Every structure is written in C-alpha cells, then in structure tokens.
Amino acid sequence: MSRELKCRSCGEPALRPFLSLGNTPLADALVLPERVDEPEGRFPLDVAFCTGCSLVQILEEVPPEQLFVDNYLYFSSFSDELLRHSREHALGLIDQRELGPESLVVELASNDGYLLRNFADKGIAVAGVDPAPDQAEAAEAAGIPTIKEFFGPELARRMRADLGPADVIIANNVMAHVPDLNGFVEGMSLLIADDGLITVENPYVRELIRHCEFDTIYHEHFCYFSCTAVDALVRRHGLFLNHVEFFPDLHGGTLRWHIGPREDVSDVAAQYLDQERRDGLDTFEYFAAFAERVDRIRAGLVDQLRQLRGDGATIAAYGAAAKGSTLLNYMGIGTDLVDFVVDRNVHKQGRLMPGVHIPVRDTSALLEEQPDYVLMLAWNFKDEILSQQAEYRRRGGKFIVPIPNPEIL
Ligand code: JHZ
Asked: Is 123 exposed, middle or buried (0-12, 13-18, 19+ CB in 10 A)?
C-alpha cells in the first residue's frame, strides 16, 4: 500500500519524488512454473528524497511478511566473495574487541548463518535474528541459534532479559529492509552494551547515483542511505555514528557504519559528513537528473539486445538476483530477448523470473548451450563470475555488463 508522504526516519511530510520505475513485481518472488497462470502482484516503485533529513526512500510499503517470509529466496552463502568479506569482518571484530566465550554477538538478518559461524567457531556466544524461515532453518542446522522474528524494541527487550546486553550487534544489508526504521534502531540501542559496538553495512546511496545502480531499487529496499541520513537517524535514539569504512567492490559500493552509545567520532566519519555536505547529498538537486540517466541506460541496453537478437544471436543472463528482476521488468526484457537465466542458488533454479517469466537454470547451462552473449545481471559479482566462467569465455562467449553503462566483455 502507498503510505502517507511522510519520511520513514524524521517523520516530516518532506518527500520529493525523483524516479519512477513503474509497477514491478516483488523482486525475490520467483514464480513456480505450475503457477505461471496465477496473477502476480505488482506494486509501484517510486523513489523520493526527504528534504528534512536527506533519507532516500521508496514510497510503497509492501508488508515485510510478504517480502521476507512468503517470497524470500536470497541465501547469503552463494557468493565466495561475500563469505570472504564476512569472515574478515568477524575476525577483525574478535581481535579488536577482544571477544571471547563470555561475549555476545548478535546479528540481525543472520540469513543462513554465513557470518555468525565465524564467531561460533571460536567459541563466542552468538544469536541470530531472521524471520525468513528457510534461511533461519539452514542457520540452525549449521549450529547457529536463530530467533525467527522481525527485530524491534519488543524483541530487543526480551533478548536483553534472556541473553544479557550484546557486546557487538551486526546488521548487514538489513537496515534498508525495515519499514519501521526508528523501531529497528531503538531496538539496537536497547540491546547494545554500554561499551558495545554496532556495525551496519549497506550499499552507499552516493555510489548508487554515481554508477547509476538503479536496479538495486526494489520493494525489499525501503531506504538508500547516506552518512548524513544515518547520523540523523541514530542520534534520534541516543547512538552516534563514530566511524565509517568503505568497500567499493561490495554490492556496488558499501559503507560499514560503526555506531555506539558513546560519542567518539573519528576524523574519517567527520570527513564523510563534510564531503556529503560539499557534494550536496543533502539537497534534492543531487538526485534530480538521475531519472534521465536511468532512462538512457534502458534505451541503450534494450536497443543493443534487440540488435544482437535481430542479427540472430542467442542471449542468456547470469544471476537471478533481485536487482536482475528490477532491471528486466523496468526494461521490459522477456523471453523475446533473453532465453534463460543461470544462478548457483538451487532455491531459484527451476523457477521463472518475476514478471518477465524467463526460466532460471543451473550455471552449467552456459557451457551446455554456449549462448553468444550473457547479460550480467549480478554485475556486483562481476570479477567472481568472470573467473568462474573462464571456459565459457574461452569458447567465445561474451558478457554484457549493464551497469554503469552497457559494456561488452
Ligand atoms: P546478489 C540481495 O539482492 C537481496 P540480490 C537483498 N535484499 C539485499 O539487500 C542484497 O542482496 C544485498 C547468484 N550468484 O547477492 C546468487 C551466482 O549464481 O547480488 C544470487 O542469486 N553465482 C538481501 O538478489 C545472485 O547471483 C555467483 O558466483 O540482487 C546475486 O544476487 C555469485 C557470486 C552469485 O543480490
């Protein structure tokens, strides 16, 4: 349902829309072939900037149960690169925070236990929180205790009473997923120990705009964060944005915000806030021309695919990613242009991409069929995928990378 035009963070009626991606199906709701004739839900995908606190957000609010319980097929463990990044994060925290058996590490959106297992392996107490049933079950099977609920103040109080305060709370790629943003941050403030550390990772809205990553916009992602917006959000709940790290290659450019109950702002964090002000990320103008750029990419890519197809080329795609669903649906790319999509995630194979109904197959289909071109929908894992697909390329296959500008490799 469309909500009243009030900011999800500061509550001001100060939202200025700057991009519409039309009516799209839910990006992770891949369709079972036997249910292809049933109507699929489509929801408006409009993006706005808050002139009150700078938070970028979509206007639509699909109920979280529909997004993350009924239709969620994302398992974190299918990317080696993400597993490596997560392991480094965990080992760094164990070292810097001197975590041991008496410590408690909580992860919000712990998925299949891909991150917490690094702490558990060292005998550190962990608690995962994730309402996605299949992912939580996979985590439990791997020995990671998981609370199958959405996180908020009520659960935070219960966890504190049952487990004690958390020394570390990790929230990776989840803050964008939360419609009640203030409840989520309040929950973290209630659960964290007085000297504890909260780390939050999320793609950086500056990179989204710079590299035209419009396809990372979908209904699961209610918000798109800058440091300015995060700073305002956490301060409202007695927390401080103390430090910032940048990972340019993760999910198109990810920030890790270090947040704590004590104010101890590093030079780096202060510089990020300052740079955002100088670049105008706190103004609508920064976002105003984005829609035109997105439309240019759409026109360029669709023309290119039509031309290749017209010349008799066969085309597949790599990555039944949520972002792939946005791109295909926004651009209207269906089986007329792309024959099939491949993905390592066994839960997605055998299904059809939402809306456009392109079938999803195992990655081995690339060598079996040797299509002339493969559209790289999971462009954020470009290097990992290119190295896995060395044989397909050796045999003459080519990749088309759509973002930031269509490019053939
Ligand atoms: P990937 C998800 O978005 C959903 P998606 C979510 N909403 C979110 O916030 C972001 O992640 C961060 C496959 N793959 O991770 C796996 C291979 O087949 O970019 C995935 O299906 N082979 C939680 O779905 C897809 O590609 C590989 O070698 O856009 C990538 O999806 C690799 C590396 C991935 O996220």
From this structure: exposed
Q: How far is CA 277 from CA 13, 233, 236, 338, in A?
A: 22, 17, 20, 42
Measured CA to CA, the distance from residue 247 to residue 249 in angstroms comes to 6
The reply to whether ligand 1 has any atom less than 6 angstroms from the CB of 219 is no
Contact call for residues 135 and 109 (beta carbons, < 8 A)? no
Which range among 62-71, 234-243, 378-387 shows the weakest confidence by mean pLDDT? 62-71
Q: Which residue(s) pair with 352 in the sheet?
A: 31, 359
> Can you name the residues that pair with 242 across neighbouring β-strands?
none
Domain count, the chain: 2
CB contact at 8 A, 226 and 206: yes
Domain that holds residue 367: 290-408
Q: Write the pLDDT tens digit of every residue in 119-139.
A: 999 999 999 999 999 999 999
What is the CA(284)–ligand 1 centre distance, in A? 30
Q: Between helices 227-235 and 181-191, what is the axis angle to 10°?
A: 60
Q: What is the pLDDT of residue 71?
A: 83
pLDDT tens digit string along 226-246? Answer: 999 999 999 999 999 999 999
Pocket of ligand 1, candidates 24, 74, 360: which has the most ligand atoms within 8 Å of its Cβ, to mutate? 74
Determine the distance separating the centroid of ligand 1 and the alpha carbon of 93, expressed in angstroms. 25
CATH classification of the domain holding 216: 3.40.50.150
257 and 378, same structural domain? no
Residue 66, C-beta contacts closer than 8 angstroms, at least 6 positions apart: 26, 41
Task: Examine residue 51 and state whether it is found in any structural domain, yes or no.
Answer: no
Structure confidence at residue 3 (pLDDT): 57
